[in-house]
Amino acid sequence: MQTLMDKCCDQCTHSPASPCKDYILCRKTGPICHDDENCRRQRQEVLNTIHLSEDSGRRQILICAGTGCSSSGSRGLVDALQASLKEHGLEDKIKVKITGCHGFCEQGPLMIIEPQKIFYTRVEAADVPEIVESHLINNQVVERLLYVDPISGEKAQTYETVPFYARQKRLVLHNCGHINPENIADYIANDGYLALTKALFEMTPEQVIEEVKTSGLRGRGGAGFPTGMKWSFVRAAEGDKKYVVCNADEGDPGAFMDRSVLEGDPHAVLEGMMVCGYAVGADEGYIYVRAEYPLAIQRLKIAIAQAEECGILGENIFNSGFNFRVKIKAGAGAFVCGEETALLTSIEGNRGMPRVRPPFPAQKGLWGKPTNLNNVETYANVPQIIRNGGAWYASMGTEKSKGTKIFALTGKVNNTGLVEVPMGITMRSIIFDVGGGIQGGKKFKAVQIGGPSGGCLPDEQLDLPVDYDSLTAAGAIMGSGGLVVMDETTCMVDVARFFLNFTQAESCGKCTPCREGTKRMLEILTRICEGKGEMEDIDTLERLARVVKNTALCGLGQTCPNPILSTLRYFRDEYEAHIRDKRCPAHVCPALLVYTINAEKCTGCGACARSCPAGAISGEKKQPHVIDASLCIKCGNCMQKCKFGAVEKA
C-alpha cells in the first residue's frame, strides 16, 4: 500500500484522526493502520471485503464496455468468454472484467489479456474459442487480431507498443480501460479515495486550495480559468449554503471526452467533487449530464450508491465531520446549457438560458448561493493532484498551461479516438504520431480545435504548441477538447457554414447579437456556398462576426464566430474562389460543381444514365456518354455508380 504520512503515530490506533503512515482505506471506518496484529487482521478483512485477495495472481481479460465498443458487440464477448472458460475449466483461474473506454474506439471491440498486456482489436464473439484455446491454454498469440500500424504495416502485441497509446500521457484516463467502473473495489484498489482521506485528515481547506493553485490546473471546460483561484472565491464567499456542480453537458459535435471519463472512472469525478466540497465549504453537489449519455448516467448512479453504502458519501464521512451528497441532473441536450449560468438555471428547473454576469456563480450561483462549477475532466484531475502534490502536476505542460489535456481526435485521420497528451505538445505530433497521419495518404489541410466555437488552423500551424495562450493567439480555443482533422477534400467555407448552422440552431435567442447575428452570418455563408455571393460579403461577414464576438451575452455567442474568423484568416482565397470564380476548390459545394464524363474512360455501360434522376445523361450503348449541364441537378449519383472513374467533377 502507498505511504501518505511522513512519520508514524506514537501509538497504534484505529482512529481515523491519527492513522499510522502505512494504512489502507477501510470501506467503513476510513484509514486504518496495520502495525500490530489486530490491525493486520482488520486489514485482511478489508482486503477480503473488496475482493483483492481472490484476484491476486489471477490472469485477467479486460473487455472494453464503453459506449463505442458496447455498440460493436463487446457485451456479447463477455458472455462468450465466460462460457468458453467454463467449458475448459478455467473460470476460477482467469477473470473476465469489463472496463470503461480504452480510447481507441475505431479498433473496437478491444480486449487486453493481462499480465502480458496482449492487445487484441476488433474482436468478435466468433473469435473467442480461438483466443481461449490458442492463447489462454497454449500461450500462442492470435496474430490476426493484433493491431497493425496503417503506415508501417507492423504489428503491435502489447498495449504499450501501440503507437496510439505509446505517445500519450494518460493521467485522467489512467484507470479508464483498466478498472471495472461498476465496482468501487477496483477504484479503491488503485489508490481511490486516498486523496479524500489525505484532504480530510492531513490538510485544512485552505491547504487543499493552495495545493490546487500550486498545480496550475486550469478549467478544462473551455475557458481555462485557474481552478484554485475559482475555489478560493467560493471559499471566501459568504453564505450559509454552498454547492459544487460538475458540468458534464458535453455538446460539441464529435466530442466524447467527458462521457468516456464518466463511463470509465466515475469515482474519480466523485472524489474530485468531494475534495472540492471540503475545500470550499459545500455539502452538496450536482452532476449535470446530458440525457443522451445513458451509460454514463447508469454508472454514475452505481458509483454514488456504492460510495454511499461504503460510507464515503453521506453524513460524517470517515467520522471526520464532513458531510457531502451528490445528485444527478439529466439535461435535455441544449448546447447552450454547457454555459455555466444556463446550466445552473436548468438545474433550478427553468429553461436553460444564460444570465448576465456579474454576479458570477462563485458569489451567486445555484439558487442564489455560492457555487463552484468545473467540468468532468477538471474534477478528475484533482485526486492525483492531492495525492502527488501540486508541484508534481505543475512539472508537466508549459509555463501557463500545466498537466495534460484530453482530446476527441476525429475526422480524416487514421487513428480516431480519445487521446490524452501533455500540454505543449505540437499539433503535428497529435495528428501524425498519435493519430497515425491522414487517411488514404491525402494531404493535411486543417484542424478544427475547440468544437463549433473553435477555430480552423492550417498546415503552417502544425508545429504550434497546444496550450491555452498559443491557441488563442492563433485564432482558435482549447475548448473542451474536440479536434477534427480535415484533408484536401474539405471545403473550408462549407466547414464554417456547418459549424455556424449548429450554433445558430442552438442559440437560446435571449440576446440580439447571437439571435440575429448568427442568422445573418449563416445566410451570407449559404449564399457564398451556392455561388450567389458578392465580394463585399466577405467584409460584411468579418465585420458582423466581430460585432457578435464582442457583444453577445454568453460564451456560445461570443465564440461562435471563431470558425468564420479563422477560415477568413487562413483560407480567404477559398472564399474568393467561391465568389469571384464561382468555383469550389475542394469540389464540395454542390451548386458550384460541374459533372462531366471523360470519353476516354467511359465504356458506354449506361450505369450513370440509369441512375440519373433528372435524365441529364445520354449516349449510345458502348459509346461515350455526355452530361447536359443545364439538366444536371448535381446529385452525384452518376459518379457513385460509375465503376470506371469516368465521371469527374470540377
Automatic annotation (TrEMBL):
The keyword Acetylation does not apply. Keywords: 4Fe-4S, Iron, Iron-sulfur, Metal-binding. It holds the Pfam family Fer4. GO terms for molecular function: 4 iron, 4 sulfur cluster binding; FMN binding; metal ion binding; NADH dehydrogenase (ubiquinone) activity. Residues 593-622, 623-650 form the 4Fe-4S ferredoxin-type domain. The keyword DNA damage does not apply. Belongs to the complex I 51 kDa subunit family. This is NADH dehydrogenase. It comes from Desulfotomaculum copahuensis.
